[in-house]
């Protein structure tokens, strides 16, 4: 496996994802907790950082048990770190070095640049530059503005690169990581979905034994894949609970419950619609709605879990980005909306936690699901918020509004599928606005609700762009909603990006 030491760069997770794409397992550890036992690691990558090596508070961990002992690649700050603290000199750049640049490989036949085209485009993002290398280092590549764009320390497998190979704009970045990890460090690319399934099932069997596990299914990809893995490992000792909070998409509860049963899961469907509606009564503040729903979920789940005798474990579909965020250099990021908290289960449940996906990125979760034969409609499903339609009904929530929104949403989603747009969109949904406006239908004046359509492109939900849907699609969808959904006389399309807007309206 590969160790990635995080110095706080916004690109650290991208490095990990590129490494995983090479079928190589890697772990991110923050710079202030450098692992001392390196026996599991075959190579180390140092990330970039918002810090300058020249500042007093620059991260400066002791890497003497790594440097010169394991193949080591410093990226950006990592490269500057390896120069500055080992006899080289780092200074502020005289020109702005942000964006695309082209590499000239100085020294021929270097393994690091094998199969990389001459003048390869790379992505730069730094304000310091390496003016002088350590005495025993040699320049491997330059760009027009950066003399030491890549270097190697003689007699060691230590490399520094000023550009970011993990960013897509570095066209040969993946090849460079391949060269470093596979050709230079000799890491075996054996991290495949199949290998992950075999390894995880064996580990779960070993860890859980004959104990019972309870798991809350949400209909989403993560909890479903976690359930199938656990089912493979412990069969009927996995007790799944699928709660209908009454805030799911139209027909979703019944359809997904059926699918779960068809997959052989031991699943209990619990219709708690009334309880959730009760909890939400007259609440219109978005955060209070989330809290009310969270509380109701815990109550329902707790009742159900207690009904199963002698449960030892609670399984969760936590994935790697949540784990990284909770241990990251910068600590958990500011709460914009309260859903970003991991865990959230009450202490009184006193169950041991098992999280079979905690080392996987989202795209890997999908690959693992596909490997286990999960249906494509479950795997390719758009993300859907835990509080469901409640945060797409602005203002207070009642069953009538939910029904209306479900109808409009079902038309939007069905049309996306009909037009073969569903898989091109990262997430889509309809928002019910708390305003009435005047319309005319037949000869009658109407004074009815307005809905907004929202469709975004994104890779992780952190940033998003609205999708340029065809006008004809929007026209057909608007007509269909207004004609079929009683109570709606106006449809608008949301053309806000995130940031500054968010994907959901609440
Ligand atoms: P925002 O609205 O913050 O959403 O841009 C980013 C992603 O998170 C989903 N989301 C939630 N998921 N509980 C969840 O489980 C929530 O309270 C919640 N709020 C937003 C949203 O659908 C999008 O995918």
From TrEMBL:
Gene3D superfamilies: 3.30.300.10, 3.40.50.880, HUPs
Domain of life: Bacteria
Residues forming the catalytic site: 76 (nucleophile), 164, 166
GO molecular function: ATP binding; GMP synthase activity
Keyword Ligase attributed: yes
Keyword Ligase set for record: yes
Swiss-Prot/TrEMBL keywords: ATP-binding, Glutamine amidotransferase, GMP biosynthesis, Ligase, Nucleotide-binding, Purine biosynthesis
Domain GMPS ATP-PPase: 191-381
Catalytic activity: XMP + L-glutamine + ATP + H2O = GMP + L-glutamate + AMP + diphosphate + 2 H(+)
Protein residues bound to ATP: 218-224
Residue ranges of coiled coil: none
Gene Ontology cellular-component annotations: cytosol
CDD domains in the cross-refs: GATase1_GMP_Synthase (cd01742), GMP_synthase_C (cd01997)
Enzyme class: ligase
EC numbers on record: 6.3.5.2
InterPro entries: Class_I_gatase-like, GATASE, GMP_synth_C, GMP_synth_GATase, GMP_synthase, GMPS_ATP_PPase_dom, NAD/GMP_synthase, Rossmann-like_a/b/a_fold
Pathway note: Purine metabolism; GMP biosynthesis; GMP from XMP (L-Gln route): step 1/1
Function summary: Catalyzes the synthesis of GMP from XMP.
HAMAP family from the UniProt entry: GMP_synthase
Quaternary structure and interacting proteins, as annotated: Homodimer.
Name of this protein: GMP synthase [glutamine-hydrolyzing]
């Amino acid at each position: 496996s590969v160790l990635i030491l995080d110095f706080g760069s916004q690109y650290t997770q991208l490095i990990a994802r590129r490494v995983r794409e090479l079928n190589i397992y890697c772990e991110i550890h923050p710079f202030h907790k450098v692992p001392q036992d390196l026996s599991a690691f075959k190579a180390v990558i140092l990330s970039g950082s918002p810090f300058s090596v020249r500042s007093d508070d620059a991260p400066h961990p002791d890497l003497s048990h790594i440097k010169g002992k394991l193949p080591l690649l410093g990226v950006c700050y990592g490269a500057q770190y390896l120069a500055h603290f080992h006899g080289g000199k780092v200074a502020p750049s005289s020109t702005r070095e942000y964006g695309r640049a082209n590499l000239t490989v100085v020294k021929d036949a270097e393994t690091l640049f094998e199969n990389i085209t001459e003048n390869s485009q790379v992505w730069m993002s730094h304000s310091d530059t390496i003016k002088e290398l350590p005495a025993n280092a040699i320049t491997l590549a330059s760009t027009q503005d950066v003399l030491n764009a890549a270097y190697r320390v003689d007699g060691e497998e230590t490399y520094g690169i000023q550009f970011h190979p993990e960013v897509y704009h570095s066209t040969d970045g993946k090849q460079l990581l391949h060269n470093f990890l596979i050709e230079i460090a000799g890491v075996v690319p054996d991290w495949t979905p199949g290998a992950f399934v075999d390894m995880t099932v064996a580990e779960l069997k070993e860890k859980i034994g004959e104990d019972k596990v309870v798991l809350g299914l949400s209909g989403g990809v993560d909890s479903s894949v976690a359930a199938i893995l656990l089912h493979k490992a412990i069969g009927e000792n996995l007790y799944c609970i699928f709660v209908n909070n009454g805030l799911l998409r139209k027909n979703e509860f019944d359809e997904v419950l059926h699918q779960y049963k068809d997959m052989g899961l031991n699943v209990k469907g619990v219709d708690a619609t009334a309880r959730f509606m009760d909890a939400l009564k007259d609440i219109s503040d978005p955060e209070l709605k989330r809290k009310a729903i969270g509380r109701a979920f815990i109550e329902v789940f707790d009742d159900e879990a207690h009904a199963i005798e002698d449960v030892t474990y609670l399984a969760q579909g936590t994935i790697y980005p949540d784990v990284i965020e909770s241990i990251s250099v910068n600590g958990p990021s500011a709460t914009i909306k309260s859903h970003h908290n991991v865990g959230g289960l009450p202490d009184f449940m006193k169950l041991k936690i098992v999280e079979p996906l905690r080392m996987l990125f989202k795209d890997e979760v999908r690959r693992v699901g596909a490997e286990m034969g999960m249906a494509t409609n479950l795997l390719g499903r758009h993300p859907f918020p835990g509080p469901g339609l409640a945060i797409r009904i602005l203002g207070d929530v009642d069953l009538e509004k939910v029904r209306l929104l479900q109808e409009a949403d079902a038309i939007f989603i069905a049309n996306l599928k009909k037009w073969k747009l569903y898989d091109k969109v990262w997430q889509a949904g309809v928002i019910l606005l708390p305003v009435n406006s005047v319309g005319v239908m037949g000869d009658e004046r109407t004074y009815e609700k307005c809905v907004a359509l929202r469709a975004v492109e994104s890779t992780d939900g952190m940033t998003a762009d609205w999708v340029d849907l065809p006008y004809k699609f929007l026209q057909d969808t608007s007509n269909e909603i207004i004609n079929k959904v009683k109570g709606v006389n106006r449809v608008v399309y949301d053309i806000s990006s995130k940031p500054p807007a968010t994907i959901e309206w609440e």
